[in-house]
Amino acid sequence: MKKISDSTISRLSTYYRTLSHLIDQGIETVSSEQIAEINNITSAQVRKDLSFFGSFGKRGLGYNTRDLRDQIANILGLSKKWNVALVGVGNIGRALIDYAEFKKQGFHIKALFDNDPKKVGQEIGGLKIHHMDSVCNVVKEEKIEIAIIAVPAKVAQSVVDSLVKCGVKAFLNFAPITIKAPDDVMVKNENMSIELEALSYFLTQNEKGD
Amino acid sequence: MKKISDSTISRLSTYYRTLSHLIDQGIETVSSEQIAEINNITSAQVRKDLSFFGSFGKRGLGYNTRDLRDQIANILGLSKKWNVALVGVGNIGRALIDYAEFKKQGFHIKALFDNDPKKVGQEIGGLKIHHMDSVCNVVKEEKIEIAIIAVPAKVAQSVVDSLVKCGVKAFLNFAPITIKAPDDVMVKNENMSIELEALSYFLTQNEKGD
DNA sequence: AATTGTGAACCTCTTCACAGCT
DNA sequence: AGCTGTGAAGAGGTTCACAATT
Predict the structure, then answer these.
(1) Which of the ends of chain B has fewer CB neighbours closer than 10 A, N or C?
(2) Helix pair B43-51, B6-24: axis angle to 10 deg
(3) Mutation test of the interface with chain B: which of A202, A206, A208, choosing the one with the most B Cβ atoms within 10 A?
(4) Angstroms from B35 CA to nearest CA on chain A
(5) Closest residue by C-alpha to C1' distance, nucleotide C12
(6) CA of A7 to C1' of C9 (A)
(7) pLDDT number for residue B2
(8) For residue range A81-93, what is the model confidence (pLDDT) as tens digits?
(9) Chain D nucleotides reached by a protein CB under 7 Å
(10) Annotated DNA-binding ranges (chains A, B) (predicted)?
(11) Across the strands, what pairs with B116?
(12) For chain A, what is the mean pLDDT?
């Protein structure tokens, strides 16, 4: 299949959420213009994004909200449940365990890892914390497909290396470091400092402008 | 000043971190090729990004790590301290209060807000939790410049509206919703679901390919 | 009359490639 | 000899504008 850009995929995610909200409000039909308005983009962008995957609308009428949401769920692979491991049960990690949004979208945290001897063996939310020594056993047992990396930067690369060896191919990385991985492995970064620094840059520019 | 792209700014952030690591290791000189290698990009990209702001290297030699880090800190506005408010003291919010990486980069959380009557008045990490009713007073008192939005999607827009009225112009939004704000206000989004859904899409494509 | 789906035009970002400096 | 800084070329993403459809 033709390579679809990252931005198209992340916009599909936002359309998915938009459609869910509209459905909750009992709205059955929506135009590309309305979806665009809600998300501060252009209607051409919405239509182009969808066009990579098919024709989901009716000319003159727009899109059926339920239909389109289900189509996008299929495209993004949200119709199935994903088994997720969380590595690093610190502040960020613990917050993510209870993050309702994840489970709502079919991402189920099924395994916890941490190498701190004080934490190994403990339970959080009904999940036992494992040492990374037993990583491949747990990954196989729980059929882990995605790993969330919430460990300090120093050890993030080696944690990913271990998980890649067990066959995990998708990572959400919270460590502020660029992870190296084989081509068939995907690493997405969630780096809050980068966004804050962009705000800092923006405010600094503004001050100069004044 | 010429408009610099978001991607350039976020790469500057990663160069900043790369340089900090190199300095910690006692390395004094670095080439664009080395910076590129560490971050999985091309050396031309590194040089081009820097070229928007000046000439910081020496031909034939490369860049002085300390020099370049300080230059980037100035560009990004990291030489000053930023006063940050955190709105929404739930799981995510609480994790962010202790997030060391923020403070290290000069982002100091100086005020907490939450409208849950059980939380208002409590203290976390030496900070009192305020009700949003007193938002403008606190913003003025603590000279808040940046707000982190960690409230449920339903109320995120109205929280931002209130803060904009008090003069806050920069937001880091964790709510899974597109925030509307005036042109002179910047909103950066940190949406973990979007990244996870990109992983879900990637894995789904892979399965089809097999 | 309204709105989609899409080729073409446009714009922006990335990479190339090399002159210029150390 | 080695590496930067940058104009030009190339690639990729976004917007336009309109024919096609309901």
Answers:
(1) C
(2) 110
(3) A202
(4) 11
(5) B5
(6) 21
(7) 76
(8) 999 999 999 999 9
(9) 1-7, 12-17, 20-22
(10) 14-53
(11) none
(12) 96
pLDDT of residue B100: 78
Substitution target in A84, A160, A187, A197 with the highest count of B β-carbons within 10 Å is A197
**Nearby residues of A199 by Cβ (< 8 Å), 6 or more positions away:** B146, B170, B171, B172, B186, B188
| pLDDT of residue A32 exceeding 90 | yes
Q: Which of A39, A169, A198 sits opposite B9 (nearest CB)?
A: A198
**Strand C closer than 7 A to residue A33 Cβ:** yes
Tokens at residue B70, please?
Answer: 């300080």
Kindly report whether the global pTM for this prediction surpasses the value 0.85.
yes
Decide if B139 contacts B87 (C-beta within 8 A): no
Question: Which residue, chain included where needed, has tokens 């910047």?
Answer: B186
For residue range B131-144, list pLDDT tens digits in order: 999 999 999 999 99
**What's the pLDDT score for residue B1?**
66
Asked whether the beta carbons of residue A77 and residue B200 sit closer than 8 angstroms, the reply is yes
Cα–Cα distances in angstroms (integers) from residue B25 to residues A181, B19, B28, B73, in the given order: 23, 10, 9, 19
* Chain length of chain B: 210
Long-range contacts of A188-194 (CB under 8 A, 24+ apart): A188/B195, A188/B196, A188/B198, A188/B199, A189/B195, A190/B190, A190/B192, A190/B195, A191/B13, A192/B96, A192/B99, A192/B101, A192/B102, A192/B172, A192/B190, A193/B13, A193/B17, A193/B101, A193/B102, A193/B105, A194/B10, A194/B13, A194/B14
